[in-house]
Specification:
3 domains; 4-stranded mixed beta sheet; Uridine Diphospho-n-acetylenolpyruvylglucosamine Reductase, domain 1
Length: about 325
């Protein structure tokens, strides 16, 4: 375990922001992690746990200890139960699961990042969320060093939410995640363009692998690749509003897209609101709003995190002014 000082985090966040960490360490085992957390040199320092860095915005240099989690391993426990260590790449794990004949997470193909961060915001895409296959996770309580198990219910999953983003924010480090996958081959192609893409390929009864392939090609055509343009995917969550609020917007904008969200509430795509507020494609030197995806803020190279954060706040303010809707940030802001 090598402790690096004043270390650049540019290669550790998909926004490609060149912030520095006072201390940086890559951790490969739980015992190393425990030793590190109990080391008096670090106990009082702010800590940032990092997986793939695909859901963070670093607004300045990090005055503390960044712990890059490299815990590896996938264990089949029987009956479709699989325990995955936090440092495994999410997409690699999805590919592994499909190769083994499992299904259930093919719709979550190509989501960047590591398994340990997946429960943080209950990752979701194409009509599937992690919580649908999630059984439990093991987490280390940072201040006491005790290991605890959180069941599905205890994680308080919601739309891009969990207890670890709210009440227990910063208190735990997730060590491993246990999922229950199926081998029945049942797939969900009802969302977005999946069935269209499969039809174009002449596939009538798709296998989970074919659904995964379709999703990978849709995502590649729609989302900017962070390797080419720094970004963290969707910057904002899609807001859920009451029916009367939705009707009010619809009166002015009959074309407003919407999805039922239960209990008489309606989800409106944040991308539509941002586009209508005039931000799509706006470029401010080396950062801006992506030209095809209004929900994606981008770093064209060399942008500062604080500038991107300020842009996000300006977008929030203008959507609030125009539609009276508060857009919540999905990306974790690291001040
Ligand atoms: C191009 C692109 C597309 C995306 N598409 C989607 C999508 O379709 N659906 C979706 O849900 N998300 C999507 N995301 C967001 C992102 O991929 C997910 O949120 C992913 O789970 C983040 O994983 P990570 O390892 O990169 O997390 P990081 O960015 O490293 O960390 C995110 C947060 O979790 C904390 N954290 C990380 N690991 C741990 C741990 N083991 N224990 C405790 N805390 C931890 C970090 O401190 C930070 O606060 C996308 C991102 C990009 C760049």
């Amino acid at each position: 375990m090598q402790l690096l000082k004043n270390h650049s985090l540019k290669d550790y966040n998909t926004f490609g922001v060149d912030a520095k960490a006072d201390f940086f360490v890559h951790v490969k085992s739980i015992s190393d992690l425990k030793n590190l957390l109990s080391n008096p040199q670090f106990t009082s320092l702010p800590k940032l746990f990092l997986g793939g860095g695909s859901n963070i915005l670093l607004c300045s240099d990090f005055k503390g200890l960044v712990i890059h989690l490299g815990l590896k391993g996938i264990e089949e426990l029987g009956n479709g139960l699989i325990r995955i260590q936090a440092g495994e790449g999410w997409h690699n794990f999805v590919m592994w699961s499909l190769e083994q004949g499992y299904n259930g997470i093919e719709n979550l193909s190509l989501i960047p990042g590591n398994v340990g961060a997946a429960p943080m915001q209950n990752i979701g895409a194409y009509g599937v969320e992690l919580r649908q296959v999630f059984v439990e996770l093991e987490a280390l309580h940072i201040s006491s060093g005790k290991t605890l198990v959180f069941s599905n219910e205890a994680c308080l999953f919601g739309y891009r939410e969990s207890i670890f983003k709210n009440k227990q924010k910063g208190n735990y480090v997730i060590l491993s995640v246990t999922l229950k996958l199926q081998t029945n081959g049942i797939v969900n192609t009802s969302y977005g363009a999946i069935s269209e893409v499969l039809r174009e390929k002449g596939i009538e009864n798709p296998t989970p692998i074919q659904v995964s392939d379709a999703i990978v090609s849709i995502r590649k055509s729609k989302l900017p690749d962070p390797v080419e343009i720094g970004n963290s995917g969707s910057f904002f969550k899609n807001p859920v509003v009451s029916s009367p609020d939705y009707d009010h917007i619809k009166k002015q904008y009959p074309e407003v897209p919407s999805y039922p969200s239960g209990e008489g509430r309606v989800k409106i795509p944040a991308a539509w609101l941002i586009e209508k507020a005039g931000w799509k494609g706006k470029c401010f030197g080396n950062y801006g709003v992506h030209k095809n995806q209004a929900l994606v803020l981008v770093n064209y190279g060399g942008a500062r995190g604080e500038d991107i954060y300020q842009l996000a706040q300006e977008i929030q303010a203008s959507v609030k002014e125009k539609f009276d809707i508060h857009l919540k940030m999905e990306v974790n802001i690291i001040p």
